[in-house]
Every structure is written in structure tokens, then in C-alpha cells.
Design brief:
The protein has about 180 residues and is mainly alpha-helical. The chain contains four helices and two strands, in the order αββααα. A hairpin with a 4-residue loop joins strand 1 and strand 2.
Length: about 180
Amino acid sequence: MSEKGKEIKKRLPRLIMNINMSLIFWAMSVFIPPTLSEITIPVLETQASFFVWILMMVVMGIFLIRVLSDALVLGDIFTDAFVTKIGIKEERSPKRAARDAVYIIIVVLAVTAISPIVSTIQEYGFYLSTIVTYVGLGLVIIFIYDIGRILYAIVDNKAESIAEQLLKSHKNKKRV
């Protein structure tokens, strides 16, 4: 089995398990805290449901980070396969541009998933949701900039090679 095949075989089940665990902790964060709404922590004068909810969100976040790390590695593997299938040579730049496009999709999906969850936090939800949105936007802008640089370098190299070929053919015609 190839190195990429081994990596897929290792990471795909882990990715699915981490997604399931994230969903389980999200469901628990929806159903368990309301059952603890009458319990108050004496020192902090805060409901226990809030702390249980925060704890479940942190655990869910850990699983989501693990999902993201596995998804990025699998995304790299599938992007390599896709780029090879469409016939792009083994140059690093086009592959990196394709990976950046995959990363943009992942960031957009992650922000779309995280914003509603974070917005439910009392008093700070709006601010946290806004922060998540702007961080995601910043990452997307960075990836788009990187794609632009890569495409500019490719077009610039192709334009130079075409100009050199035209110049050579023009010189050869003058000699004849």
C-alpha cells in the first residue's frame, strides 16, 4: 500500500470518529444544561448550567480541532490526486494554489458552523461570533492573496517563455 493510502486509512476513521464525538458533545450541550438551570454555584453566584455548557463547548472544540487537522491532511492528499488527474505537472505552485482553494472552503465551512454555536453564549455571543467571522475573513483573504501571487507567477513565467519564443522565431525569419 502506498504512503498516501496508509495515511488515508489512518486518518479517515479518526476523522469520522472525531466528527461523531463533536456532534455528541454538541447534542449534550443542548440538552444537559437546561436540566441544571436551578443549580447555582454559591461562590460565583452563577448557574451551573453555564459552566457545564462551557465545558462541553471546550471538549467539542478540541474534537473539532482534531477534525480540522485530519481534514487538512486528507485535503492535501485528495488535492494532490485531483491536481495530478487534471494534468498539472509536479510543480509546487499550482498544487499550493489548489490547496489554498480547499483551505478557503474549509475555513468558510468552519466559520459557518462555529458562528451560530458561539453566538448562543450569553452576553458575549455577538462579539465572539463577530470575531470568528473576521478571523475567517482574514484567513480567506490571505489564501486568496496567496492564490493570486501563485497565478501571477505562473502567468508571468508563461508570458516570458512565449515572448522568448516569439523573439527567437522573429530572429530566425530575419536570417532567412
